[in-house]
Structure to design on (584 residues):
């Protein structure tokens, strides 16, 4: 390994990749040796050309790095390759066909995906719907790309989603920032509120122990049953002691990423505001607080739901407010007092006046 | 008995539209927050609440401009001596808390340019110049958090704006029944309310009842 770092490894150098490419197996380095070259393309039957360039370093750093190229390209075998590459009609069809290779390991994703409006359209002959590789960069899948990639992909194909939703959803842009697309477009899935800890505008990142988020959360959680309002504050205080001032961003998302593939036709999407804007609404029953690790993988910790409505955490959560869903209990009590007081005080005054009027005044008047 | 013109038409128009609007805003507001009173859809109630809000904001300017550009503004500053003003206010409080039960006369006598007792003048000014504008402004910001993102940020977040809005709502929830009750404390329960409808108040003849300068509506 040390030798490789000193540049003794000819394949990595030939690939022009940085040091992370060295994590590739010897076999994969052979593949990348040819496929890292810019401009390697193949002419397709329909006249287009397909770029065959693969970034070896990105692949090595991806979740699929350890399994190697063959994990998804079992049909490729050296040394027959590249002489035996079969005919490819068009890039779209090729991507669809290669998606099938994901099935071996991610069969659970295919069930919801195949019921999605995208798969329905694909089966009906429209080639424009996304295959796995359109939402997940096939050679660079990381926890970070899984978190951020899909939403960017949706917007790439669907354009100005805020404008489309503005037609029926007030504050649409704000909703799209606080609610995952799948939280509405996978209507049968379980949802939750994730309180994302931000430091300097970015999600708080634990770079291999730089901010041991989970350790802080465990330490704050004195009775080991998830963070209540006081413990939640303690967590924020102890994170702040580490350095950066922290803020929170509330986000409504699915509890399981697998269900994010349901995406039924738009008529089935959640349009009923009360699915969120109500205290008893599903997302508010399950609350987590999260940071991310160095790879962008969320580190979540359970939080009691009362944190959303407690005066103790009011200040920390001042940027997140879904009317009806996260209202503060203290104000409800004040309102009840106001309603009762506003009516009983005049009523008592009236009663006192009635009573005192019975006794005539010294001057004989009654008022 | 003399009939004097205490509530000019623009004030009466403003007042009843405002009263109706406030009750409607409170009902729709509570429905948005608690969703228990009616079976209307959330979206409909939000739209209704916003629409009524905008009508009342426009209506507010009827009141404001009327007082700014007519001499009726004097109803709000008849007493320039603060010491006397607070003494009069105290006297009014004592009247409501004690004298009224004893049958003492109301220390304030209405005239066209002194239609409010000091307590009324003070509370109406706080309500109309501070609380109502603040309520309208926080409502406007909540209506489009995106457009007013700068304000939201400056105030500290959506939850802060919303808390201001709700706390003020609670103040109005208390104010309205107390206000209505206080208006029934005339010679007869309906007297002041009738005056707010017709514009005219009947007052006992006396030295204090001298009408102010003529005209000015
Ligand atoms: C909902 C039932 C309401 C009733 C029955 C009612 C009744 C009245 C009456 C009778 C007056 C005349 C006061 C007097 O001469 O003693 C008055 C004045 C006034 N009311 Fe109301 N009111 C109501 C709601 C409201 C609301 C919601 C507000 C404001 C938030 C309000 C603000 C005022 C103000 C500022 C005045 C003084 C008017 C002026 O500037 O000339 N009222 N109201």
């Amino acid at each position: 390994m040390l030798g490789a770092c000193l540049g003794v490894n000819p394949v990595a150098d030939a690939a022009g990749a940085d040091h992370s490419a060295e994590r590739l197996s010897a076999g994969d380095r052979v593949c990348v040796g040819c496929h890292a070259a810019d401009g390697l393309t193949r002419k397709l039957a329909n006249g287009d050309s397909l770029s065959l360039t693969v970034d070896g370093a990105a692949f090595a750093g991806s979740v699929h790095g350890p399994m190697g190229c063959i994990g998804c390209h079992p049909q490729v075998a050296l040394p027959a390759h590249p002489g035996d590459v079969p005919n490819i009609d068009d890039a779209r069809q090729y991507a669809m066909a290669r998606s099938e290779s994901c099935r071996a390991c991610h069969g659970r994703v295919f069930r919801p995906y195949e019921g999605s409006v995208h798969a329905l359209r694909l089966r009906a002959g429209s080639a424009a719907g996304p295959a796995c590789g359109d939402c997940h960069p096939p050679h660079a899948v990381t926890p970070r790309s899984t978190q951020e990639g899909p939403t960017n992909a949706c917007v790439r194909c669907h354009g100005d989603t805020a404008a489309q939703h503005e037609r029926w959803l007030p504050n649409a842009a704000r909703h799209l920032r606080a609610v995952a697309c799948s939280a509405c477009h996978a209507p049968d899935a379980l949802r939750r509120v994730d309180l994302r800890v931000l430091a300097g505008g970015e999600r708080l990142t634990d770079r291999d122990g730089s901010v041991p988020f989970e350790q802080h959360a465990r330490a704050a959680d004195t009775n080991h049953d998830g963070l209540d309002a006081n413990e939640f504050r303690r967590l924020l205080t102890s994170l702040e002691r580490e350095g950066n001032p922290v803020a929170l961003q509330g986000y409504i998302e699915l509890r399981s990423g697998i269900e994010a593939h349901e995406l039924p036709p738009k008529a089935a999407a959640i349009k009923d505001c009360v699915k969120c804007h109500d205290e008893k609404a599903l997302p508010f029953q399950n609350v987590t607080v999260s940071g991310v690790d160095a790879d962008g993988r969320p580190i979540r910790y359970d939080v009691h739901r009362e944190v959303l409505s407690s005066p103790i955490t009011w200040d920390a959560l001042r940027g997140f407010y879904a009317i009806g869903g996260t209202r503060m209990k203290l104000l409800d009590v004040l309102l009840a007092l106001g309603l009762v007081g506003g009516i009983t005080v005049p009523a008592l005054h009236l009663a006192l006046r009635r009573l005192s009027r019975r006794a005539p005044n010294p001057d004989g008047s009654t008022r | 008995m003399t009939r004097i013109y205490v509530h000019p038409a623009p004030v009466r128009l403003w007042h009843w539209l405002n009263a109706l609007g406030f009750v409607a805003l409170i009902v729709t507001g509570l429905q948005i927050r608690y969703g228990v009173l009616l079976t209307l859809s959330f979206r409909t109630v939000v739209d209704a609440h916003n629409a009524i809000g905008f009508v009342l904001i426009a209506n507010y300017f009827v009141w404001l401009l009327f007082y700014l550009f007519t001499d009726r503004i004097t109803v709000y500053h008849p007493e320039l001596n603060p010491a006397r003003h607070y003494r009069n206010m105290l006297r009014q409080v004592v009247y409501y808390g004690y004298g009224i039960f004893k049958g003492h006369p109301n220390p304030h006598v209405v005239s066209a340019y002194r239609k409010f007792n000091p307590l009324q003048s003070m509370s109406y000014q706080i309500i109309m110049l501070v609380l109502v504008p603040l309520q309208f402004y926080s409502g406007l910001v909540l209506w489009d958090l995106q457009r007013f993102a700068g304000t939201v940020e400056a105030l500290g977040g959506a939850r802060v704006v919303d808390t201001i809005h709700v706390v003020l709502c609670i103040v109005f929830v208390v104010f309205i029944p107390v206000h209505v009750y206080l208006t029934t404390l005339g010679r007869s329960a309906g007297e002041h309310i009738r005056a707010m409808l017709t514009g005219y108040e009947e007052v006992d003849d006396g030295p204090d009842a001298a009408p102010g300068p003529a005209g000015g509506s």
About this structure: The first strand of chain B starts at residue 2 and ends at 5.
